[in-house]
């Protein structure tokens, strides 16, 4: 006969391995059912409310704000003071060149916030009217743009 300590250790280890296998299988199946790509121990998911998500065209945009709508048509003529007249919402969601420009960050996060306000109600904390009003208030100065961009960013991340 073998060593009794060795066989009792194997008897404890076998159920632990089986339990670990079941948990990993279940979590992978749950992640796949939720639309995430399954990973071994860590699955990175992209937020469903971020500008990156909306620019990926994974989900249909709300009818009220088509991808080809101009920023000035959606946010009002005051946006013409800061942005090109032909700049579309899709372009503004796709942009990632505004790390140092608070107005570009406001446009980037504000576009996602507007899309979320139409498609993620009641989970999203702002109505479309509130997003447009806050966006226009952010166009007043660089510090106001930075504050509003941060506010929209926090709401977009929390919505995910």
Automatic annotation (TrEMBL):
Fetch the InterPro entries from UniProt: Protodermal_1
- From the UniProt annotation, give the residues forming the signal peptide: 1-29
Top-rank taxon, per record: Eukaryota
For this UniProt record, give its keywords in alphabetical order, as a comma-separated list: Signal
PANTHER family, per database record: OS04G0517000 PROTEIN, PROTODERMAL FACTOR 1
What is the name listed in the Swiss-Prot or TrEMBL entry for this protein?
Uncharacterized protein
Q: Which organism is it from?
A: Linum trigynum
């Amino acid at each position: 006969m073998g060593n009794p300590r060795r066989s009792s250790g194997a008897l404890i280890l076998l159920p632990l391995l089986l339990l670990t296998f079941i948990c990993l299988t279940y979590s992978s199946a749950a992640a796949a059912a939720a639309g995430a790509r399954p990973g071994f121990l860590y699955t990175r998911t992209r937020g469903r409310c971020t500008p990156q998500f909306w620019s990926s065209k994974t989900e249909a945009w709300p009818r009220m704000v088509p991808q080809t709508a101009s920023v000035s048509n959606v946010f009002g003529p005051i946006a013409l003071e800061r942005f090109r007249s032909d700049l579309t919402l899709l372009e503004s969601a796709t942009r990632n060149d505004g790390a140092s420009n608070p107005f570009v960050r406001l446009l980037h996060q504000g576009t996602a916030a507007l899309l979320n306000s139409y498609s993620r109600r009641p989970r999203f904390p702002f109505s479309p009217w509130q997003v447009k009003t806050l966006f226009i208030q952010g166009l007043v100065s660089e510090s106001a743009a930075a504050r509003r961009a941060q506010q929209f960013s926090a709401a977009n991340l929390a919505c995910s």
